[in-house]
Amino acid sequence: MTGLSTNLIHADDSKNRVSDIVTPINVSTTFRYDDDPSLLRAADEGFEEQEFVYSREKHPNQVKLEVIFDEILNGHSVAYSSGLAAFYGLITHFNPKQVAVGPCYHGCLNILNIHTRNFGLKQFSYSEEDLDKLQPGDLIHIETPLNPYGTSKSIKYFADKAHSKGALLSVDSTFAPVPLQDPFKFGADIVMHSATKYFGGHSDLLAGVLVVKSFEIKEKLVEDRMHLGSNIANLESYLLLRSLRSYELRINKQSENVAKIVKFLSDNKKNFKILKDLTHSSLQTEDFVKKQLPNGFGPVFSIFVESKEIAKQLPSRLKYFHHATSLGGVESLVEWRALSDPHIDQTLLRFSIGVEDPNDLINDLDQALSSFN
Ligand SMILES: Cc1ncc(COP(=O)(O)O)c(C=O)c1O
């Protein structure tokens, strides 16, 4: 089997159209029809589609991206204009009548709420009682590791629950992409990622991807995507291709960094008066966690501090963490999460760890937290 880093750099070689080593930026939204009139067929005469016609349907760098995603995500992938566009594609295609959903990215919940408003979609919790109500064709959606805490849920547990009712399990794996976690190995039916985060990795593009196990379903998702107008854009495709080349180096460094930082904070918790708690998969003791994340933990964790006022002040005392939302980029970020999530504990700060020297990040956290002692 070809390794992850080789696939990231070479899986799309067969789709090269020019001899350039770096795939060119391709901005054309439309492509010339055949010059030979005898080859032209009207749509109702069994029009034989040429590869590229209009970029809402398909364009060269999106095809290259999907070839790479197919290899590295172990399924049939469909690229979208954002993570939320991917989730919207999922809900539109599978069209469940009932969804079991718990805490997860609020944008995904907002999409479910639109479906509840427009079509009467029923939403349940993850309680045993609620999961028992699921019917064939329904959906369980989980996010693991979970935003903003960075903690894990057992994919296998939810896969077994869904399948015992003839329902499907979708997993938002944004917080621990390959090689950290492969939800298909634990029974997921659909995997989604906000590729804006780790795959993009430079905080300069929006993209999403859905992965399914069947080519027939991929084809249907692609058809819906064309009608919904949610294909990944030309320029973003170029940026994402560029990013994927170095993805493995970044995610492994980010994962190594977070393990060191969380260990430092956990070992020294008592030394920081304002640090009340911290959450991350590496601190969980359940057996499934290490099995699900065999190659390292996701680079996001959260801390709880003494008060809302301190949570507001801490970001400005850090030198190497930009105070901003989002995650997954090469630069470390901190966010007083109450700024973007109306339902969150206002003493929580979320950290997204980048690829800086971990000792610098640790020293920075040490001085900022100690400054309140
Ligand atoms: C876990 C998770 N899923 C989905 C999304 C939505 O992705 P996008 O911003 O690319 O639409 C986000 C965005 O922060 C996220 O954190």
From TrEMBL:
* Record carries keyword Transmembrane helix: no
Question: Any signal peptide, and if so, which residues?
Answer: none
Pfam families, per the entry: Cys_Met_Meta_PP
Alphabetical UniProt keywords = Pyridoxal phosphate
**What's the domain of life for this entry?**
Eukaryota
* PROSITE patterns noted in UniProt: CYS_MET_METAB_PP
Q: Which residues form a coiled coil?
A: none
What is a single molecular function from GO for this protein?
Answer: pyridoxal phosphate binding
**Could you name the Gene Ontology cellular component terms for this entry?**
cytoplasm
Cofactor section: pyridoxal 5'-phosphate
Question: Which Gene3D superfamilies does the entry mention?
Answer: Aspartate Aminotransferase, domain 1 (3.90.1150.10), Type I PLP-dependent aspartate aminotransferase-like (Major domain) (3.40.640.10)
Q: Which GO terms describe its biological process?
A: transsulfuration
Task: Quote the InterPro entries the UniProt record gives.
Answer: Cys/Met-Metab_PyrdxlP-dep_enz (IPR000277), Cys_met_metab_PP (IPR054542), PyrdxlP-dep_Trfase (IPR015424), PyrdxlP-dep_Trfase_major (IPR015421), PyrdxlP-dep_Trfase_small (IPR015422)
Q: In the record, which positions carry N6-(pyridoxal phosphate)lysine?
A: K197
Protein family according to the UniProt entry: Belongs to the trans-sulfuration enzymes family.
Stated name of the protein: Cystathionine gamma-synthase
Give the originating organism.
Wickerhamomyces mucosus
